[in-house]
Amino acid sequence: MIQKRVRILLAEVDAGETVDTLGALFPDATGGLDLTVVSTMSTLIPTVKMVDPELILFDLELSLSDPLDAVHLVHRSAPGVPLVVLADPALKQYAAQSLSEGAMDYVKGFMDVRTLGRVVRTALERNTFEGLADLFRDPLTGLYTREGLLTLGMRCQEEARRTGGTLLLICALFENLQTLREGFGPGAGDYALRDVAQLLASSCRRSDIVARLGHEQFAILAVDAVAPSAPVMRQRLERSLTVHNETRSPWGPIDLRLSVGTWSAKDGRNFSEFINAVEADLRQVGISERARTLVMHNAVRG
To answer: How far apart are CA 146 and CA 134, in angstroms?
Structure first.
């Protein structure tokens, strides 16, 4: 059982079963539950402001005409509150898509005490650790610093080890930052760094963690990922970079070097070792590229 009194806002058409399940998770003996239930979109948004919940459970059936737009609207009304989507089997295709609209997690189909307990606990703990990690924010980009990523990443790794989950880490190096500074001035470099931060953040889910690891280096940590999603995420990021360079960059293209690594529950490395390995791959990519350039240059001279 969860030993914590918590304010939960439940938005569901027929909330009886979920109310009973939450009651089992938060019995009166442990302090009980401050639960507010609404059954329409028109009452949900005003209630968010009045209740100030620590967690929102949102049933997609409240907006059958456009479920994903509704998720986006709820997230915008309380961007700092964990949002968990409840999806009937008939709407299960929208469940995973809801993560890109601001949801932190989702539950599909029948919801037992164990399943809901896992989702609620993860959402609340993640929000607590995000509050701690917020102490480690990069002042220029607003992203987490390396310390912030380590704070959240170690917690995510613990959860993944317990549940058998997988972590996916993408490291990115802004290769031509110094060239931009020299050609357009320090201000242009700062603007470009903020552009890269926005580009990375817009290319992943809300549940993913984006950080600036160093002056020119960034990272995306995808939680509950699977190995086959690595090339998909990389391709999405590369497409976004291409669009940015063609339409939005006033000082020429931004060059990002990428390296991708995965971690599973069978992996013996701690989170710091996982980051170090992906960063080492990133440096090796650069060494290999420079070596190929030198060989081509020498061949031309010969």
So the answer is: 12
Q: Where are the alpha helices (DSSP H) in the chain?
A: 16-25, 41-51, 67-77, 92-97, 113-133, 146-163, 177-184, 186-202, 229-247, 271-301
Which tokens belong to 161? 């080890």
Q: Minimal CA–CA distance to 172: which of 238, 213, 217?
A: 217
Residue with tokens 């339409």: 247
* Residues in Cβ contact with 60 at an 8 Å cutoff, skipping those fewer than 6 apart: 67, 70, 71, 85, 86, 87, 88, 91, 94, 95, 98
CA distance 272 to 183: 36
Residues 152, 34 contacting (CB under 8 angstroms): no
| Residues 6+ positions from 211 with CB-CB distance below 8 Å | 138, 143, 144, 145, 146, 148, 149, 218, 219, 220, 221
Token pair 């938005």: residue: 11
In the chain (302 residues long), the average pLDDT of successive 10-residue segments reads 69 87 74 85 91 90 87 87 85 80 79 76 70 76 90 85 88 93 90 92 84 94 71 86 85 89 90 94 68 37 45
In the chain, the domains with their CATH numbers are 7-130 (3.40.50.2300), 136-301 (3.30.70.270)
Q: Provide the whole-model pTM.
A: 0.60
Q: Assess contact for 171 and 217: CB atoms under 8 A.
A: yes
Ramachandran area for residue 92 (φ above 0: left; ψ -120 to 50: alpha; else beta): alpha
Tell me how far apart the alpha carbons of residues 87 and 82 are, in angstroms, rounded to a whole number.
16
**222 forms bridges with which residues in the sheet?**
168
Q: Which two tokens stand for residue 147?
A: 């310390």
63/205 Cα distance (integer angstroms) = 21
